[in-house]
Design goal:
alpha+beta; Phosphorylase Kinase, domain 1; 8-stranded antiparallel beta sheet; 11 helices; globular
Length: 385
């Protein structure tokens, strides 16, 4: 979510997969890397391999999707299985020349799975989009999911997600399951993470599900005991202030003004800090055998105010799905999330402070991305950038 100005040039989805040799051989034959079918419509924009078995990635994890999208994918899958793929999609051929480096070749070697194929969401790389490839073998077995970071912001998101997944899995929480990291590294300037397949029986949360709060204390304590700290002396406020000052030097004072107001209102309040998921929203959560499964940990960070995930669960759907402004979405979240925050042990003053800090966090996220993407950006790394 969010936006950032002065974006670097955004590579097309296909261009991420083949790194072209700077010195091509004259007249060299090209080889086919992938024969794809690009699909558009109510079920989304995505690519699948050409062939009758393309229904497999179409229907994989279909119970995570809204009913309308699920039915659309079933219809497309049946059409493709009947050999009528050209009637519903556009053919696209991805090729490489001798000497070109191909991501699928690299991942096939890294994962020990020859001849990998892929399907994926087909949308431009911009803002906070990290393209995801569903990797599978020729016989349709899912190997995992590869997520790609293509610039300074999205590369950091990949690296942070890997760290979060490994830390959470190592802590062994009982209330939530997370994907295993199969491989992580850099390839031709891309940050790449491959995670294990999700359970095949995973399904979306009920449409009006309440925010799942039971695992949040375990997640918050992943990095160690949670101890109350005065907001004014916290590492969180220090990092927020640093970001505000840096943005102000480039003419953006909004974040610094908000930080100063929050410090004035709540600086002496004791607040508990810990790790948060970072994007605790319905489309990143599912149920499998009565266990909660959570993915997309790219925004996870430690030492943030306890309760952020509760507010996020209400604010982001209001902004992304219902088109509310940032102010209206966060105000709505503060209103509807109070009972859940109280259930986590926050008193009335702490509820108000954490709600104000969550709004600040969303602005910090956008501001840090904007700073990272500036051509004259400072190379130093903020712990929560």
């Amino acid at each position: 979510m969010g936006s950032a100005e002065n974006l670097e040039p955004n590579p097309a989805f296909d261009q991420l997969l083949v790194h072209t040799d700077d010195r091509p051989r004259p007249g060299a034959d090209r080889r086919v890397v992938a024969e794809l079918l690009a699909l558009r419509g109510v079920a989304g924009d995505f690519v699948v391999p050409v062939g009758r078995d393309a229904w497999r990635p179409l229907l994989a994890y279909n119970r995570l999707r809204p009913v309308r999208v699920r039915l659309g994918r079933i219809g497309l899958g049946l059409t493709i299985a009947a050999g009528l793929g050209r009637a519903v999609g556009e053919r696209r051929t991805l090729t490489a020349r001798p000497g070109d480096r191909v991501l699928l070749d690299y991942l096939s070697t890294a994962l020990g799975e020859p001849g990998l194929r892929f399907a994926g969401t087909d949308r431009p790389c911009r803002e906070f989009v990290t393209p995801v490839l569903q990797l599978f073998t020729r016989d349709g077995r899912c190997v995992g999911f590869a997520k790609l970071g293509w610039d300074a912001v999205t590369q950091r998101m990949i690296d942070d997600e890997v760290e979060a997944l490994r830390r959470v899995r190592a802590s062994g929480p009982t209330g939530v399951r997370v994907p295993a990291v199969l491989w992580h590294g850099y390839w031709e300037g891309l940050a790449v993470m491959v995670t294990a397949p999700m359970p095949t029986d995973i399904r979306r949360l009920p449409r009006r599900a309440r925010v799942p709060v039971d695992p949040l204390a375990e997640i918050a304590a992943v990095d160690g005991p949670m101890l109350p700290t005065t907001l004014r002396t916290s590492d969180y406020l220090r990092a927020a202030t640093d970001t505000g000052f840096l943005a102000a030097t480039f003419g953006r004072r909004e974040v610094l003004t908000r930080v100063e107001r929050i410090e004035s209102d709540f600086g002496d309040l004791q607040i508990t800090f810990g790790r948060w998921h970072g994007d605790w929203v319905p489309w990143n959560l599912g149920r499998s055998r009565n266990a909660l499964f959570a993915w997309d940990w790219a925004y996870s960070a430690t030492a943030v105010p306890f309760g952020f995930d509760v507010l996020h669960f209400a604010a982001v759907p209001a902004e992304v799905l219902r088109g509310a402004s940032r102010a209206d979405a966060t105000a709505h979240a503060a209103e509807v999330s109070t009972p859940a925050l109280r259930a986590l042990g926050l008193d009335d003053d702490q509820v108000q402070a954490v709600a104000a800090l969550h709004r600040l966090e969303l602005e910090l996220r956008d501001t840090r991305a904007w700073l990272l993407r500036r051509p004259d950006r400072v190379p130093s790394r903020d712990a929560r950038a």
